[in-house]
Amino acid sequence: MQNQNINYVEGATASPEKLKWLENHLPSDPGRALDLGCGAGLYSKWLVQRGWKVEALDLNEPPPIPGAQTRKHNLEEGIPFPDRSFNLILVWDVLEHLVHEKQAWEELARVLQAGGSLIGSVPHSADQRLHPYNLTFKHHIDKTHQREYSTFDLEKKLREVGLNSVQWCLKGPVSPQVIREFISFKVLRGFTTLLLGLMKRIGLLRPGELYADIFFAAHKN
Question: Which of these, 56, 139, 147, 203, could form a disulfide with 44 (CB 3.0-4.6 Å)?
Answer without folding.
Answer: 56
